[in-house]
Amino acid sequence: MATEYLQQHWLGILVMVAAAVLAVWATVRAGLKSGLLVGVGLLALMPVGGLVDLADPWPLGLLITSGVLLALLVGILAATGFWSNWLGIPVLALLLFSLGGVLLVPLGEQLVYAGRLLLSLEPLEPLWLLLLVLVPWVIWFSYRRLAALGSTRRVLAITLRSLIVILVVFALAEMHARRTEDRLTVLFLWDRSLSVPPEYDQAGVNKRDERIKKFINDSVVKRGPAKDNDKVGVIVFGKQPRLELPPSAVPQLKIQKLQSPVDDTYTNIADAIKLALASFPESSSKRIVLISDGNENLGNAEEQARIAKQNGVQIDVVPIAGGRRNPNEVLVERVD
Question: Which CATH number fits domain 184-319: 3.40.50.300, 3.40.50.410, 3.30.70.1790, 3.10.180.10?
């Protein structure tokens, strides 16, 4: 939980630390002044808004409300010359707080994605990268020749020249990025053959089916907020597989009753894996969770497993105790 929170709110924490450092530095430089403390306090409210998990649509609603109020106060100032810090500072504080709640988390996610994209850059013609040694020369040469521009304009000009050189070198080296896909699609393959007999209680409820349903439902619910875009589906199989639930991004499955009929006289794991491979969407990582006793009597599951491995599909096996009662047979509690 702490790791997920840090991954989601790292930018807000970073801005908060930067605000604290700025406050210490400004205090040391200028001393304790009320205006300075108010300014730093207002700045710190933005990361605070990013660190507080308010339920939607509160952050956006607060942002719109504070924005309208601030625009109204500015309008009154322009029309009458009247301004009140007792009104303006709280409204500005609310605006910064809600702005942090709306922007910091998605901005942090985009920065992480951009960082991963940069780290994945690879050259097709790496020898051209040797021209990057020109960048220090460009900086040294330009620093001497552009002294008349002043410090700010000189730094800007040197930065633009260096960036142009780097982009030209990257173009010559044919840099390209390997796209990494964070989304995951999990397909549960549920063995419904007679080799996994039912366990009826006195009320006629199949307790084995209930345990497997609970395992699948809990696996989806407990995957964590960082994986809300992951997709999950269910395939049931006996002699032939059936796609019970196609892959979709849902917060929970709530499996109650299976609708797909299967011929339970055979156990064909191979065709179940084959159907799973054909059911995966293209733009995601892929994982199969096989729930079975492994008593295959039709097809060649080993061959299909090799094909799955060649296609980058991970297969996890959840063994169930065929032919005997075991209330703890489903041992895996969570699939990440």
Answer: 3.40.50.410
